[in-house]
Amino acid sequence: MAWTTPAAATTGATLTKSWLDTYVKDNMVDVGRPSLGNAVLTSSVTWISVGSEDYSYTLLLNSLTMSRNTSLSGGVITVSQAGIWAVSASLVWAATASATGSSLRGAKVYINGAASDARSMQPNLQNISAVCTIPTFLVSLAAGNTIELRGWQNSGSTINVSAGSRLSCWLVYRS
Prior knowledge:
1 helix; five-stranded antiparallel sheet; seven-stranded antiparallel sheet; 9% helix; 48% strand
């Protein structure tokens, strides 16, 4: 059962079982199974360098679980349902021996290829893992819009990210 745009009932019309099933029952079932996507880095780490931003990389998440009205391609989640979506992310940075006192690592969520205000920065301490956590935020998305997670560091070209990094979204309000 999929969402069907509600029809307007007219005065004097006979409500049939078919009409009620389509516009009431089936839609209630659909609303009870919310749209969501949970993309997770389960194994290998692959990055795509973003040429316009120094030391910025798109994380290629390689598993989309609990997917409904979402798809994953090239590390980017595409939503197929317009509405208000809640988005959150975490990027797990592996410990590195080459960190310096001024090293920083970060994570940003991009919507349709543009940086959102959702970001987290952490010091890159030598031999210590760090997690950049982006708390849940709301964003209005149209069908076909994209969400992606990018990692950033202020120096170097080698990036080490651990399995368990994730980007999640769920539909709060359908439009």
